[in-house]
Amino acid sequence: MFKPIPVSIGLRYLRAKRRNGFISFISLASILSIALGVTVLITTLAVMNGFQREIRDRLLQMTAHATVTMANAVPMPGWQQAVDLAMKDPRVSGAAPFVQGQSLIQGNTNQAAMVQGIDPALEGSVSVLAQKIKPGGSIDSLAPGSFNILLGQELALWLGVNHGDTVLVMLPEFQGGPIGAMPRYKRFTVTGTFEVGHNEIDRNLAVVNMADLQRVLRMGDGVTGVRLKLHDMDQAWEVARDLALRLRGAYRVSDWTRDNANLYQSLKMEKTMMGILLSLIIVMGAFNLVSSQVMLVTDKQADIAILRTLGLTPRGVMQIFMVQGSLIGVVGTVMGLIGGIALTLNLERILGLIESLFNVTLLPEDVYYITGLPTELQAGDVSAIILVALAMSFFATLYPAWRAARTQPAEALRYE
């Protein structure tokens, strides 16, 4: 009794049993459509966030959060000073030099790959290479002057080589010879393989000792650059820029978002397009809401006319149906929110149940490099979905409410 009249009547219309069962059915369909759309959107975006997290984490196991190299692509002198300065920054958890070059590796077949020279003593501060080496291999085998090499698992399979075999590494650094310019090449002994779980790394990366690669490339004590690992990866660009400024020279800085820009842009675009397409389910619920509200307005013509004769303004009539329609949207959104969170939290159990019932493997480990279904609920995504659903529900009530406000009492009561 203490509520405003439009709100009170709108709530009464929502609770009351309608004479026309078809209108009630469409209202229920509107609620279920909105709830289904919100549930599907929350679950789908959570799964996509989970896959993005897995891809990012596996990629960053072997790649740096940030790198500092010379601006003119020449070897960086005095890398020890760069490492020392980086480690004095509290935002940096690890720093290590690296030498890198594109190469053609020849085993039983040929394969282009990136050869990376590392310092085994410092590598553990910027990557998990030592933990990803298969049994039988060790990062300690990369001693200076040994000319040993560690291959990605997929790369070793492609080359058809095993532990103890030799491979010929050819680098696009030409040297003069009796028959003209020849690429630099050196035989390395395979002392192990590693598997990160990211195809781009496992198939396209080979690791050697930094001193060995410097010798082949005749770089002296210079390196390609310095890799940085941070406590907060989102600060990568600022930390690398600050280090370059302290080094006082022409340096080029890069971070993990720029090094893998195409991958992350494609993942972001895929997530955006999936969200837009699945939002059509909510749009369908909003159209059902429009239909149910239009039929409700037609069904309540006499009631509207009586309220108008009792002094209720057209604005008040409009508010009644806006309240009633908006509450349908709120109920559907809340149901979808609860359903989406519950489904996301139990998705892996549901997936396991389906696999056991039908004796199938929905996510083969040898194809997706993962076990289980990764999910990650993000408050920003959930909030955006709720706002979109509520906004669509609100706008769906405007036209039926406007029609109700235009009802003429004399016309509506003529045949009553």
Features:
single chain, alpha+beta, 17 helices, 416 residues, 2 domains, six-stranded mixed β-barrel
User: H/E series, N to C?
Assistant: HHEHEEHHEHEEHEHEHEHHHHHHHH
Overall helicity:
55-70%
Q: Which regions are unreliable across 5 or more consecutive residues at pLDDT < 50?
A: none
Strand content: 15-25%
Strand order of the largest sheet: 2-3-7-4-6-5
Q: Oligomer, anyone?
A: single chain
Total domains, how many?
2
Q: What is the CA-CA span between the terminal residues?
A: 29 Å
- From the alpha carbons, calculate the radius of gyration and give it in angstroms: 32 Å
Global mean pLDDT: 85
Give me the number of helical elements.
Answer: 17
Task: Tell me how many strands there are.
Answer: 9
**Globular, elongated, flat, extended or rod-shaped: what is the shape?**
elongated
Briefly note the structural class of the backbone: alpha+beta
Largest sheet entry? 6 strands, mixed, barrel
